Structure formats: structure tokens, C-alpha cells
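An instance follows:
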Amino acid sequence: MNRLIMPFAGFTSVLISAASALAGYGTVTWGNWSWDPVSGVGDVEVMWQSDTSLYGFQFDVPDGFEVLALTGLECDEGWSLYHNEVRVLAFAAQNGAEIGASENSVGLIRMDFFASGGELSFVDAVFAAIGGEEIETDSSDTLDLEQQQCSEDIYPSGAGDGQVNVNDVLAVLGDWGASGSPYDVTGDGVIDVNDILAILNAWGACE
């Protein structure tokens, strides 16, 4: 295994490295998000699904975007989170803090950012398993800040379809009682009747 020691904002990471064989497969996507075109400030969840446990990751943001802050979701207790204006770095700093394999996407972190517009994407994303072995990762998801926003339009996750309708209700019902779901309309951390009521109150085309 050839380790890559990567300096970043005054510290180094040895968790993420290059290996002769990839350790599983995963997908990283953008989840729930909001953005105020007047102030330029927004936030977005980073979602992860994989067939192997996650011990660390990093990615950059495109030109025109600035990372302001990070909040742990699943990457909370036992994780170390770092960022500068263009890069996010996170790793499990304690035994047992790794994110286990799952068939469903989970929210890793919430990232606050500044942008005047444009398309948010994962740049040079690297996700690592135990020992720093790289996980083969689909990081092709993008988020167009210019698209029509409607907080109750939650399906498909992270994008919506411009309509608040039965698809959004079904997405909520499918994650009923879950925490950290991308379909948490109210943002209170749990899927319950309040999410259904919010969808019903916003029924129809996004405006």
C-alpha cells in the first residue's frame, strides 16, 4: 500500500491513501440543501452509501464556492472535521466511530457555504476504508443553485422535480421514524406527521 500524506490547513492526514486494490464501492451525493441568492449563504448535506465501512474522506469544492463551516451528522461523536475555503477533510478519530456499510444513504455532514450561483460538485473526492484503503466512489452528483427551490419538494433527494405531490409523501412514508433522512422536510431530525403536513400545505407546483 502506498500511503499519501496530504498536508491541509496546518495538519496532515494519513487516513486517506492509495492502495493496490480498492476497498469496496460507495456513492456520495448532495442531500437536503438551501441557498439564499441575496446573501449567497447556503447549506447542504453530504450523503453516503457504501458496501464497506467509512473511516475518512476529503473533497474540494469548485471555483466560486467557499466552505464556511461543517456540522457532523453521522460524522459526529468520534470524528474530526476540518475545512478551509475550498476543502473538506473528515476522519474517524476514535475506534468504533466509523460509518458502517448500508444499503441506504446516510447524512455524513452538513456543509455551510458561500456562492454567488453556479453548480456545486465534488472535486477530487477520496473516500477511505480501514487502513486508508480507497473506496471506489461515484462522486458525479451535482447541485445547480439556479434551479427552482422548494423545500417541500424532496423527491428525488437533493434535487426535487418541481412538484410537491404524492412522490414526496411516499418518500416520507418510506423513511417514517428515521433520523438523518434526506426526506426530513421540517429539518427537526426525525420523519413524522409534521413532514406530511408540511407537504400537504405546499401541494402543487413549486413557485
